[in-house]
Amino acid sequence: MLGVIPLILSAVENYRELYDQFEEYRNFDDTFSRFIESIQRQQARYQENLQRLLDPIISDPDDVDALINDLSLTDQRWHDGSLDGALKQRLATRHGSFFRVIGRIQTVLADLERMLQIKDGKVKSMLLLCTSSKPLPLPPAEHFAI
Fold it and tell me: Average pLDDT in the 82-90 region?
């Protein structure tokens, strides 16, 4: 009879571990939704800041929208120097730090795209990501330092 007690304790511990895993899975959807909402808020702030920065510099609203929505910074105007003079004048002494921050944002976004397997603005399959036996690679911590 005394030999059964360790078996019962072991079974209870196994059920507890299974319950904890189930709770984590159940809470994942809520946690992930909050994460996506946070990213969307940050993206909106980023785009609002770019809007404020570019409105006085570029007269065509369509050009401003194109630059704001160019999240990969592939538009040549970001690289060809055509905006440099106006941005330097508008940002004054903050010009260098502005572009360093933009570069850091781009690196973090690229890491998130790779980590979440985003292609053409869509996540591959959350089910595949969640059931993968390999843990998702996290971006280096220095990307999140301010």
Answer: 87
Distances 40 to 37, 43, 44, 45, 128 between C-alpha atoms, Å = 5, 5, 6, 9, 23
Supply the pTM of this predicted model: 0.58
List the structure tokens of 56: 């006085």
pLDDT tens figures, 46-64: 888 889 889 999 999 999 9
Check residue 146 and give its pLDDT. Answer: 42
* Tokens linked to 33: 């939704």
Gyration radius (Cα) of the chain, Å: 23
Length of the chain: 146
- Taking alpha carbons only, the member of 51, 46, 44, 146 closest to residue 90 is 51
- DSSP per-residue letters across 24-56: HHHHHHHHHHHHHHHHHHHHHHHHHHHHHHHTT
Count the Cβ atoms, other than its own, within 10 Å of residue 60: 8
Q: Where are the domains of the chain?
A: 4-141
